[in-house]
Every structure is written in C-alpha cells, then in structure tokens.
Amino acid sequence: MLNPSETLIRIIDLHKSYYDGESELPVLRGIDFEIKTSELLAVVGASGVGKSTLLHIMGTLDRPTAGQVIYGDQDVFTLQDNELARFRNKEVGFVFQFHHLLPEFNALENVAMAALITMPNNKAIYDEAAALLEYVGLAERLSHFPSQLSGGERQRVAIARALINKPKVVLADEPTGNLDQRSSEAVHELLWDLNAKSGQTFVIVTHNSELAEKVDRVVRLVDGKVVSTGLDLSD
Amino acid sequence: MKFEWFVASRYLRSRRKQSFISIISIISIGGVALGVATVILVIAVLNGVEHGLKDRFLSNEAHVALHIFDHSFFKGYQERIQRIEAIENVVAASPVIWAQIGIFPEHSNTIQDAIYIKGIDPAQEDRVTGFSTFVTGSTDFQDSELIKKTELFREETITGGIILGGRLATRLGIMEGDVLRLLIKLVDPGHGSLVPDLANFVVIGFYESEMEVYDNNFGFIHIDAAQELYNQENRVNFIFVRLTDAELAPQIATKIEDAADFSVLEGMPSTRTWMEAQAPLFAALRLEKIATVFIEVLIILVASFNIASTLIMTVMEKTKDIGTLRTLGSSRGNVMRIFMIQGSVIGTLGTMIGTALGLSICWLLSTNTERPSYWYVLALVVPIVLQFLIASQHALRNRGGWKFAVGILWLIGIGFGLYCAVRPISLVDLGLSQIYQMHQLPIKINWLFVIFINLLSFAICWLATLYPAWQAANLKPVEALQHE
To answer: Taking CB atoms and an 8 Å cutoff, what residues of chain B touch A56?
Structure first.
C-alpha cells in the first residue's frame, strides 16, 4: 500500500522563460514545493500566471529553463527524449480542459492507447480499458467514437485514459473548465472517488473554487512564484 | 511497430466511413498507380515497336556483310563461303555484287533514278535473306518467259531479268515485261568523248518486303549478269551471312573476317553488321526510350509529391493528435514511424495497383478476342450508384459487409470496363501498317524493367515520406497540444 506521507514529487527552484527574439519573458521564477503520495493538490492562480506551464513541465512535456523535477529520486530532466517519453507513458497521466481524445479511435481504443504504445496489442489491455470505462460509468459506450459522446462523457473517457498505465500521478489542467455544472460535478465526484479508493495522486490546475475547496492542499501562484501552500483560498 | 501500424492504418481509413480508404488516400494511391501504369505501358509499346522493327529487318536483311575495305571485287568467293559456313552459329552465306547505278525506264532518255543493284545467286540468297518469299512474279533471271518474249520482239540485246522494288516500280510507272536500261559506266570508244555503257534488262517481277528501304530503292539481277556488266568474272564484292542469332553479329563478324582470309594484295577485310547498318534507327529508338523513361520517372516523382503533400496535410490536420500521442508517451520515433508507414502503404499500394493496371492494359492491347461493345463500359454505373447509396444512406454506412461488396464490385466494374474499352490498336486503320509492316500496335513487356520501375517507385515514395514524418516527429508536444 502506498505510504501517504511519502514525498512523490519534489519541485526545486523551477524557472521557465519564453524567448521572443531578444526579449525574455519569464513565466516561472523559482517554484519550490512537494507533492506527497495520494495527495489531491490544486494549483490555483490568475490567468497567465504559469499554472499550465508548471503542469506541462511536471508532466515532462516541456523542459524547464532551470531547476529540477524529482520523482522519487529520479531527476526526470536528466533523461533523454526517448526515456522521457517512456517515463511519461508509465508514470504520468494527463487530463486536459479539452478532452484531446483521438477522433479516429473509439472510447475503448482511446483508453487503451497509452498501454498499446509499449505493449503488444492484447486482450488484457482492452479488458483493463473496458473496466476503467465501466468505472467512469461508460460501460455502454465502449465502441462509440468521441464525436458520438457528450462533453462530460468525453472528459470521463479522458480520465479513464489517464489511468490505464496506473501512473504515479495524474495531472489535470482545468478538467471541468469546459463542462456545464452537472457534468463538472460528475467529474469531480470521479476524481474524489479515485483519490479516496485507490489513493491516486492528483494535481489539478483549476479556477473552480468549488473544486479547490475540496482538495487536500492548494498551491497558489502569483507572478511565477508560489505564494502559499495550504488551504488558504483568500486572494 | 504494432502500435504504429494500428494508428497509421486508422489514419489511412475514411473518417466518414463511406468507404474503406479515405478519399485523400485513394487520390494519392491513384497518382502513384497511374504513374507506374503509364511507365510500364509506354515502355512496353516502345519495346514492342523496336522488336517488331527488328523482326522486320532481319526477315530480309543479312546479319553480317563481308567486303573488302574499299568495296573492291575479289575472287574465290565460293571457297570463302564454304569456310564461313563452317563457323559455328553461321547458317548460310551468299555471294553478292552490290552497286549503285542509274536507270532509264522504257521511252525515257534521262536517268529517272539511281538505285542499288544486288547481283545475287537466288538459291544461295534465299538461305540468307529469304529473297524469293518477297518476290511477286518470276525469279528466273535467265530464262523467264518474259525475257524470251521480249527478245523475240525487240532488237536490243537483253542482258537478263531484273526484279524491282515494288514501290520503285509504281513510282516510275514501270510494268512487268518493260525493258529497263541500266547505266553501268562511261566508256571511251576511241574518239575522245565518253559514251555511256548501257545494259537492257526485262522487268520479270517485283520485290515486296514492305520495308521502305528495299521496296523503294532496290533492284535484283542475277550474279552472272552482274559479273558480266562489270567485267568481273568469278568475282564479287560482298558476301552476305545469316547467323543462328542476330544478336551474335558483332562477335561472329570478326570470325568471318578471319575465315575470309584476304591476302594483303586483295585488301583489308571489313564487315558490317545489321546493327551498324540500322544504327541510326535503333539509336533513335533507344534515345526515345531513354527520354521516355526520364519523363516517366518525372511522372512518378510528381505522384510522390502527391504523397508528400497528403502526408504534410495529414500532419497539419493531426497536429493536436500528435501532441496527444506524445503526451501519452509516444516517442519521436513512434510518431515518425506512424507517418512513414502511412506514406509507405500509399506508395506500395499505388505501385502494386499501377503494376497490375499497366500489365493488364498491356495484355488487353495485345490480345485479340471478340470484345463486348464499348457501351458495356457503362457497367461502371453499378458500383458508382451503390457507392452513392452508401454515402447518402445512414443505415448502410456502418455495414462492413456492404463496403466490402462494393469494393469487389468496383474491382469487377473497372476490370470489365477495361476489357470492353481497351483493345488492340490497329495500325492498318491508322494507315501506319505500310511503313512499319505491323498490323497492330506491338506490345512487349520487359520484365526486368517492370521490376526496376517497381523498386524505383517504392524508393521515391519512401523518400517522399521522410520530410513529413520528420516534421511530425519534431513537433513540440506542448505547442502541438495547443494547436488550433
């Protein structure tokens, strides 16, 4: 069983700047915090403050200008691109504001995709994918294509997809930002349930105060820095 | 690799599910297929023409002609012929006197034409060039009825009979039994000015090989008459040789020169092969072939640009999905292979279909069977209508069986349509049979070339996938995800 107090991810003095010709645009200016196993963490902050950038770097989709992201004792940015892809495949799940499902593939295939990248096509993968879809309440929709699903359903497929390889952490970028009230609630319930039942670690970038209220801890970003880590939600 | 195939094959397929393959894939495959089919077809026609012409030439042309360097006459030709015929791969040899002379047709006092005269021994010549098979009329140069009749009614001395090229005769209005005067040389009878030495020949037949060169420019007389005309008793200036295989001419030519064994006084031996004689024509054909291959390769290149642009479009369209795939943990290599597989499948299918199409059309163009009317091409309406139905009827769209059946119907429809529409092309109808002596457009498939063009097409198509695939692999995941 996972040890809840164990540190899962350490983010150390993380900097990220974008360059537009000569001018440097710093987005992250030295971020430090830790995420514990089974934690449900929200990253909040004003638009453009670098929440998504932070999430992308944590998910190894982008490299920082400076600083480290350490999973367990693995400094991930010492890895080569191919190793990083493999790491991402095994250890990180993503859920985006827009579902980002692949339109040519049905729900079951979309969920199985991450497992298919490294493993030979087999029934076990599809059984696992089907079980996940059943868990998110889409048992009847396995062969439906994204275009045949509603917004909330798509997002639930996306969550199932993030879980297929049993990643250490699921990174969610505004997972309900594009959904109506009812669908949002269903997705929230799902995340809570997953965290409670399987101890899955979640990092959720959100504007949604309702969501942020229910998390274990909130990391607030202002001007590219962490100003508070705790449950303090006041601006 | 399984994963890449899984994704690539889905990208090749139609998203709207009206058919197995997306329209854009079909267009790309069609481009390559048409390119390859055209190359195979055009080269088969050029090959066919070359072979047809060669066959025509060799039916009445000696493979090797032996002579002394300056075309002077030599003795002892029968012994030399015996020695030449002893060489391996030599079928037969015949003595020939070859000259150019001016001719005066009857009732004409000016030279009407300068023609080639071949003085031959008909029996020996037959074994080398099949001479008598092309003659209408008599081949009895010495004692033809026509000669006897003419000698009876005319005062001039008749030297012998002459067989004239059919077209030459038509052109000059010369009939069978006419007397033709040949201007052999100028002589000085002793009073200081030169007078022409003429000989009279009776036209006893016509030579109709339907090869322009011979029919329009040649006359044949008996070798004895020719020797008499030139005062070259027991001498000739050429020996013509036929081989078992015309392609051996260059190698055997030197052996023939050795066997002829000319003395230093007689002169330098020399040979001319049929290839050298027809060099300009075959050089032109080869040049045409090279130019054609060049153009055809450009066609395939154009088709490969089609593949490249299809892939680039797919990469652009799928940018966001590529971002997603990278997020899920696909490596650059995974992404690169997905698009290379997609392009390679298009190239391979296109090349294979093109080869099948090209070879089928070649077969149809060279097979003389009773074909259904051209109207039956309209059978293609059946798959078109069904395809339209599938596209418009929701209920039919998702039925795999329907799509498969329509796919088969398309195949049958196109095959049957081609069978009705593509027939051997008659050169007689086009008025070209006279010149080429071929009744229909000749087709000869060069299998080595088919293999070569297949490999080339695979290679070009594969190269065309490299840039788009590389482009896809190098998309930055974050930027790709945010792509709209």
So the answer is: 478
Cβ-defined contact of A100 to B327 (cutoff 8 Å):
yes
B402-411 long-range contacts, CB within 8 A, separation 24+? B403/B18, B403/B19, B403/B20, B404/B20, B406/B19, B407/B19, B407/B20, B409/B382, B409/B383, B410/B383
Q: What average pLDDT is seen over chain B?
A: 84
Tell me the pTM. 0.75
Contact A62 B334 (CB under 8 A): no
The stretch B308-336 carries a mean pLDDT of: 86
| ipTM here | 0.88
Residue B334 is nearest to which of A105, A117, A165, comparing CB atoms?
A117
Mean pLDDT of the region B412-423:
85
Q: Which long-range contacts (CB under 8 A, 24 or more apart) does A128-136 make?
A: A128/A164, A129/A160, A129/A164, A132/A160, A132/A163, A132/A164, A133/A107, A133/A108, A133/A157, A133/A160, A135/A160, A136/A160, A136/A190
Q: Are residues B448 and B469 in the same domain?
A: yes
Q: What is the pLDDT of residue A3?
A: 54
Q: Are residues B267 and B348 in the same domain?
A: no
- Cα gap B399→B420, rounded to integer Å: 32
Q: Which chain B residues touch A79 with a CB distance below 8 Å? A: none
- Taking alpha carbons only, the member of B452, B289, B450 closest to residue B355 is B450
Write out pLDDT tens, residues B285-309.
888 888 888 888 888 788 788 778 8
Q: Are residues B30 and B119 in the same domain?
A: no
Say yes or no to pLDDT of A233 above 60: no
Query: Does residue A234 carry a pLDDT above 50?
Result: no
Q: What is the pLDDT of residue B394?
A: 66
Pick the CATH number of A7-229 from 1.10.10.10, 3.40.50.620, 3.40.50.300, 1.20.120.450: 3.40.50.300
**Residues of B whose CB is below 8 A from A120:** 2
